[in-house]
Write a structure and sequence with these properties.
- The protein has 6 helices and 13 strands.
- With 274 residues, it is α+β, with helices and mostly antiparallel strands.
- The longest helix has 17 residues.
- It binds 2-oxoglutaric acid.
- 2-oxoglutaric acid binds next to strand 7, strand 11 and strand 12.
Length: 274
């Protein structure tokens, strides 16, 4: 019997089964260069058309169970301190509206889950990031997410609180739903508040767009690159798998985050069997 990933992952273009091979080393180097130059790596067609068809079909059976949340928040994903002046950029609020399914709602037979739990993929991501080891989140909800965005949904401009994000595009919306970012707009020494303000208020200087065609795997360093997902138009939901890997073992989501993202704090004892 052939392994589940045969015909599902384009192993010719992305030879990740043997990371020591010259072909894999060449790919890893290319990805590292992209990451250094732009803060992102875009691996188009990582999952084949056949794989995408399966991902869409399996996602359609669960997407209606996504928790939909609407909130106003800033780019820093934190409550602004009371002492900040009224016009501080950390007080600039934007709307966010999106749905999400947690790891415990995704059945173990789902292809998205097989990909997330695949050692070869995690090893490849770690190699590109030049990390001696990476781990899956230990959180039964936060480890793997299927983000579901429908008409009018929008993910505001923000910085991540994690070093990197790995995403897999399952389906694009009819219109909108583009991933936009400004590479390295800030760094540890310079928060660059003025430029951040310009972007949130509609500036387009150095804004880069990732098309995220279905099947595209993206590695993104979002701590210093502000990013968003543009508003969705049309009836087709945008479906995106978000893979929680970290350089530390045992990463858990806070109760606050669980509440916002999944509308509950207690994991489900579901068919997902986590
Ligand atoms: O949906 C996406 O493409 C990215 C999501 C994202 O930026 C996030 O969850 O922080």
């Amino acid at each position: 019997m052939s392994p589940w990933f045969e015909g599902i992952v384009d192993l010719k273009t992305y030879p990740i089964l043997d990371l020591g091979s010259p072909q894999a080393q060449e790919l890893i180097q290319r990805c590292r260069n992209d990451l250094l130059l732009t803060g992102a790596v875009e691996l188009k067609g990582f999952v084949t058309a056949v794989g995408v068809e399966t991902l869409v079909r399996e996602s359609e059976t669960i997407e209606s169970k996504a928790h939909h949340n609407v909130l106003q928040g800033n780019a820093y994903l934190e409550e602004p301190e009371a002492s900040l002046p009224a016009d501080d950029v950390r007080r600039l609020m934007e709307r966010t509206a999106l749905g999400a399914l947690g790891y415990d709602q995704i059945p173990s037979s789902h292809l998205l889950r097989k990909l997330y739990e695949w050692e070869s993929l995690m090893g490849f991501v770690g190699a590109v990031l030049e990390l001696p080891a990476i781990y899956r989140y230990a959180d039964p909800m936060g480890a793997l997410n299927l983000s579901v965005m429908g008409e009018g949904d929008y993910l505001r401009w923000h910085f991540d609180q994690t070093d990197f994000v790995t995403s897999l595009a399952v389906r694009t919306a009819d219109e909108g739903g583009e991933f936009e970012y400004v590479p390295m707009i800030r760094n540890e020494k310079n928060p660059n508040y003025e430029r951040v303000r310009e972007i949130i208020q509609g500036g387009r200087d150095r804004v880069v767009r990732i098309q995220n065609e279905p099947g595209t795997l993206v590695l993104f360093k979002g701590r210093d690159s502000i990013h968003r997902v543009t508003e969705i138009r049309g009836r087709t939901t945008r479906l995106m798998g978000l893979f929680g890997y970290d350089r530390q073992p045992g990463v858990m989501s806070s109760e606050y985050l669980r509440k916002i993202r999944y509308g509950r704090t207690v994991p489900m004892q579901s068919e997902a069997g986590v």
